Amino acid sequence: MSTSALPESAPPTPEGPPSASSRMTPRSILLWTAVALVGALAWGVLALARGEEISAVWLVMAALGSYAIAYRFYARFVARRVLKPDDRRATPAERLEDGVDFQPTDRRVLLGHHFAAIAGAGPLVGPVLAAQMGYLPGTLWIVAGVIFAGAVQDMVVLFLSMRRDGTSLGQMARDEIGRAGGAAALIAVFAIMIILLGVLALVVVNALAHSPWGTFSVAMTIPIALFMGFWLHRIRPGRVVETSLIGVALLLLAIVGGSWVQESSLADTFTLSPTTLVFCLVGYGFVASVLPVWMLLAPRDYLSTFMKIGTIALLAVGVVVAAPVMRADAVSDFASSGAGPVFAGSLFPFLFITIACGALSGFHALVASGTTPKLIQKESQVRMIGYGAMLMESFVAIMALIAAATLEPGLYYAMNAPAGLLGTTAESASHAVAGLGFTISPDQLTQAAKAVEEQTLVARTGGAPTLAVGMSEIFSGVFGGTAMKAFWYHFAIMFEALFILTTVDAGTRVGRFMLQDMLGNVWKPIGRVNWKPGIWLCSGLVVAAWGYFLYTGATDPLGGINQLFPLFGIANQLLAAVALTVCTTVLIKSGRLRWAWVTGIPLTWVVAITFTAGWQKLFSDDPRVGFFAQRERYADGIDAGQVLPPAKTLDDMHTVVTNSTVDGVLIALFLLLVAVVIVNAAVVCVRAVRSPVPLPTTEAPFVESRIDLPEQAAEPLVGARS
Amino acid sequence: MNARHGSLLSTARQWARTVRWYLRELTGEAEYDRYCDRHRRHHPHAPVPSRREYEVLRTHHRENHPQSRCC
């Protein structure tokens, strides 16, 4: 019996050759004109309305209209003219079908898989921080960035990897660019992953510090996942859907339970300082990465997927139904002055660094060259899976931006400026916010904290608490009213923490394998995947590496997010630069110089923003921006025996000096590695252009597909009609 | 009235089936059925592994093929 048949499943509709269906019918011309008009109207309202309050629905319409047009026209153009997918050609999923790694999969199912793998906390956090520059620059970058850069990168990498039997980005860099470029790319990928895990874990620490409700409910996810793992492994093997539903129900119970714990004598047990939380997370990360996957990682992943899709759908409904009004400025003064408290630096390049996921995220290239290319059923589906999933992530980023920009600006700054600036009381925070040019009274600040049943909202940096307050406003406007605000706040915190912990689990494990692989070249035994001491050592090293950044972030006198988030953004965008370099090189090598601009322009842009930002982070004279200027200022202070605020002791001063040195050196290293990849690629491109015959590429040879002819197909499709 | 009721019911049933299909495919729950089909075709005389045995194989594979989750 095959239970995989979908009742009303449409058969896959491979796109025909370009000439066959490129002419539009009058009806579709009418439809697309209407879509274009609605999108243009929404952009017009956003651009022209000043001094009056704008509904968030206009943002949603502008974004959705643009996505629709981009998907229908630009993505199709890139696919048909540049990539030229051929549905007569068998994909690796068909040719190498083994029922495990390679399996032709229904495109809708694969879209879900791919989306769950690329979307996480990134598109939720970046836009919240970037709201300090106003909602308009962020919205423009998220929409234009995804259409011309992010989604193009994801689709092209997916396509290239699919044509190479699903090889990884690092391997493609080595095969198509060269040994130096390949090695630099490999080290860059590893280093960037470490920073990413450290910064994401910091977001969780900042969201849970001194919050017994949040800490309890997030801590409960561990026993819930263990229970699910046990249930799936021992009692009802393989019944994932029912187990996940039980898990989600328990999760909701844990959120409700947090409110009781907060009122009870257990509250003190769950009220933890940032430093304690850092050690808990590091310990958790290590244990999770050495335990068998069925115990913790796999069930947590299921929970996270369910929560992700459910909450994002809920948020979309909430935004449209509640139609909140934007309270932030369209473009704030910090956009041009560069003196914003959330992150330092001017709009160019720092806005484009801060919003990475949602517009352009290099990390996606790792996913797009991982499992997904091995599961694609037909080549033309790269448009829906690569481009389409990224558009969905971009929409998540737009909703996060809306949640942040619909908050009162006074509250936004009281939550997101660093603790050193705001002090610890509602009074000091109110005073500091007034100094930034916004108003919130101490009473309002206390009330806002009380509404979500938190001790304080002052300096709750990292983006997660701000998003949670914004989401609780939107949700409570639609479901449950003000009485439910505290529940929705903690629901949102739980939802983000769950994502991040899943990323931390999986990332530590991936990092461990990469490290074992690299060290295995030096000393054989450590590369063996079954040798326990090797596993423990490498897991320990990976956890210690991201744990170091987490610890410095949690204890940084200048505010960890403020210091580390730019590092994270630059790292992620540099990875995008590597991915786009690989794409452009392959296009040129395969005789498509004419179309190389499709990835070449986003590449130029991302190189411009990352190298400008990196340069400023290294050499700016402004100590708020430049790491080395900052180092010098505090080192001079130490020499003069002074304590410079926000540092409170001489120890703090030494901490600042160490941290800014490490951060500065890391940025320099990242830039150097990426420069090596780009220079190596440029040499290869020049050689390719000059060569009279095409240079060899590693594309797998053509094999005719049999999937269109079901009676001949050796294997049934995943999810296909039986 | 009754006919409308019936068609509503069948639409709802169809929706429920679609959702169930999607979730089973997305979580990989449906993989076992396909595995059995495949096994019977390739090894018609060997006994098909039980669900429990299959899940052990699947977790073992997952153990050594970690998948990165993005930010």
From TrEMBL, chain A:
User: Which biological process annotations from GO are given for this protein?
Assistant: cellular response to starvation
**Membrane topology of the entry:** Multi-pass membrane protein
Limits of the CstA N-terminal domain: 55-613
Organism superkingdom: Bacteria
Gene Ontology terms: cellular component: plasma membrane
Q: Which UniProt keywords apply?
A: Cell membrane, Membrane, Transmembrane, Transmembrane helix, Transport
InterPro entries for this protein: CstA, CstA_N
Q: Which residues cross the membrane?
A: 29-49, 55-74, 115-135, 141-162, 183-207, 213-232, 244-261, 276-297, 309-326, 346-367, 387-407, 487-508, 529-551, 563-588, 595-615, 665-686
Name the Pfam families for this protein: CstA
Positions of the region Disordered? 1-23
Q: Where is the protein localized?
A: Cell membrane
Protein family per UniProt: Belongs to the peptide transporter carbon starvation (CstA) (TC 2.A.114) family.
User: What is the protein name given in its UniProt record?
Assistant: Carbon starvation protein A
